[in-house]
């Protein structure tokens, strides 16, 4: 059991509220309305911009060359991830300048700035715990949805699933788990663990809210 497993266990069903959200279920089944997925993808592009900033902050917060290298690799992985978003949105006739001009929605702002604030006000471990639901959670979701993609000859979201189920993203998620484990070598006090649980729970709740934001965008039309 890693400390990441301990964090997941500490928040119980709130983790599956995120990883098995209705958005995720419909995406895996291929029944998610395209307009919902499009709204999500545009907001996720903005999310990734802020996520890259947060990982750059991790490089600044680092005290060893190994940690700086790790953070730099994470930024590079996010930049690669944005290429998926640009490819998909281009297929719908959305130019990159339109993508950049789309306003950030409230949940997007709340989540990304929470992660940045956790890093600014806390230490490197606080920041990596705040980042972990996205990095590690998406890998878990991608791996869970991969069989559905393979069994569906023309799955509408095959490219998205392949991105997060793929070896490159899975390796990035494993590296994120390893970073958190390394930062807690020797253990943490009960008080410190509770602090980390609070950060992890809040970030996980915001992940679930991010899915819901996309669903609500269509229901409110």
UniProtKB/TrEMBL annotation:
GO BP: thiamine biosynthetic process
Pathway: Cofactor biosynthesis; thiamine diphosphate biosynthesis
Domain annotation Thiaminase-2/PQQC: ranges: 15-216
Pfam families given in the database record: TENA_THI-4
Listed CDD domains: TenA_C_ScTHI20-like
Keyword entries, A-Z: Hydrolase, Thiamine biosynthesis
Gene Ontology terms: cellular component: cytosol
Domain of life: Bacteria
Gene Ontology molecular function: thiaminase activity
Catalytic activity: thiamine + H2O = 5-(2-hydroxyethyl)-4-methylthiazole + 4-amino-5-hydroxymethyl-2-methylpyrimidine + H(+); 4-amino-5-aminomethyl-2-methylpyrimidine + H2O = 4-amino-5-hydroxymethyl-2-methylpyrimidine + NH4(+)
EC number assigned by the record: 3.5.99.2
EC supergroup of this enzyme: hydrolase
Cross-referenced InterPro entries: Haem_Oase-like_multi-hlx, Thiaminase-2/PQQC, Thiaminase_II, Thiamine_Salvage_TenA
Keyword Hydrolase: yes
Family: Belongs to the TenA family.
Entry function: Catalyzes an amino-pyrimidine hydrolysis reaction at the C5' of the pyrimidine moiety of thiamine compounds, a reaction that is part of a thiamine salvage pathway.
Listed PANTHER family: BIFUNCTIONAL TH2 PROTEIN, SI:CH1073-67J19.1-RELATED
Record protein name field: Aminopyrimidine aminohydrolase
Taxonomic source organism: Corynebacterium ammoniagenes (Brevibacterium ammoniagenes)
Upper lineage: Bacteria, Bacillati, Actinomycetota, Actinomycetes, Mycobacteriales
């Amino acid at each position: 059991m890693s400390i990441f497993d301990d964090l997941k266990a500490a928040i119980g069903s709130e983790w599956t509220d995120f990883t098995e959200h209705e958005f995720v279920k419909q995406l895996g089944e291929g029944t998610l309305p395209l307009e919902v997925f499009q709204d999500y993808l545009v907001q996720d592009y903005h999310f990734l911009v802020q996520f890259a900033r947060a990982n750059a902050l991790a490089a600044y917060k680092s005290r060893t060359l190994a940690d700086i290298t790790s953070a730099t690799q994470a930024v590079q992985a996010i930049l690669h991830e944005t290429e998926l978003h640009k490819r998909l949105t281009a297929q719908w006739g959305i130019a990159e300048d339109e993508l950049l001009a789309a306003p950030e929605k409230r949940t997007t702002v709340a989540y990304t700035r929470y992660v940045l604030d956790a890093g600014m006000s806390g230490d490197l471990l606080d920041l990596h715990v705040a980042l972990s639901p996205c990095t590690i959670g998406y890998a878990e979701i991608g791996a869970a949805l991969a069989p559905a993609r393979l069994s569906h000859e023309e799955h509408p979201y095959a490219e998205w699933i392949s991105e997060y189920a793929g070896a490159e993203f899975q390796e990035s998620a494993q590296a994120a788990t390893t970073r958190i484990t390394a930062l807690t070598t020797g253990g943490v006090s009960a008080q410190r663990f509770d602090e980390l649980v609070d950060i992890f729970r809040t970030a996980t709740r915001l992940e679930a809210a991010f899915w819901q934001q996309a669903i609500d965008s269509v229901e409110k039309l």
